[in-house]
């Protein structure tokens, strides 16, 4: 997060007030936590979610008579996921200086790649799209390239939290339809245990992704509250699903998803935004926006302390600190298990800017 400053302006850098963490130190702490979390995540991913897109599902048993709109949905999910190489290369490059984050993005990419292959298998084995049609569709998709929705790492990190949660929700709601649990009359007779298992398996991965990125945003929120709150506000102001501008007939897909009761603006607000807010100690969008606005209204000549007070009042920093502490305990348990703790343990360092008296 710290700026790269040319040597000729080094003299202009404000010195970190005594007792506070410098940006360099904050960046080091965030990087260490990311690295520890990434090691924990990888072990867990291999132990609990090591499925295969071809062999983990009984593809021949897939329902051959699924309604056309379910095929439209599955095809759209495939279209979004098949940009996995673009997502991964852009994100790896963005965070290439961070060991924990760049290696994580490769692991993440390897999981997203499985999602693309599993959804493609589902389209193929539905027997409602020919292999030639799929090949042509893929060619059309691949002719366009996905690009980062935001130029900097913090905004993209925040974006990914909302995106992973939204994706998980989409898949869980398709799973319910495939289990015959749709509350839409025209879909209540749909049954496909294979499709239900695919949707559920991928949704579990998306939940793990959501959690990883959520922990990352909590770290930034704890050490860099002002920039992170601003990034959250910016991301929700213009949130859309990835590849929405790249996939042909996106509107039709989006309409179908909405009419099937899978995902729409209300779901985003209630089951994505509010869930993520709760996990980040943010009470509501209104409270977030008011907090950010209030910091701008502090006149320049006043000292920084009023801005600081407003920022820390904008979210529940106590709960975020508790979450960041728990993350460190999880990493430390993992490091104890391996033996890293004897050589190079990850430690939690409190942010001294957190208002202690109000908290007690
Ligand atoms: Fe995915
Ligand atoms: Fe994901």
From TrEMBL:
Gene Ontology MF term list: metal ion binding; stearoyl-[ACP] desaturase activity
Output the SUPFAM superfamilies linked to this UniProt entry.
Ferritin-like
Quote the Pfam families the UniProt record gives.
Answer: FA_desaturase_2
Keyword flag Lipid biosynthesis: yes
| Source organism superkingdom | Bacteria
Co-factor requirement: Fe(2+)
Question: What keywords are annotated for this sequence in UniProt?
Answer: Fatty acid biosynthesis, Fatty acid metabolism, Iron, Lipid biosynthesis, Lipid metabolism, Metal-binding, Oxidoreductase
UniProt cross-references to InterPro entries, sorted A to Z: Fatty_acid_desaturase-2, Ferritin-like_SF, RNR-like
**Annotated GO biological process:** fatty acid biosynthetic process
Q: How does it assemble?
A: Homodimer.
Family per UniProt? Belongs to the fatty acid desaturase type 2 family.
Q: What is this protein called?
A: Fatty acid desaturase type 2
Q: Which organism is it from?
A: Deinococcus maricopensis (strain DSM 21211 / LMG 22137 / NRRL B-23946 / LB-34)
Q: Please spell out the taxonomic lineage of the organism that makes this protein.
A: Bacteria, Thermotogati, Deinococcota, Deinococci, Deinococcales
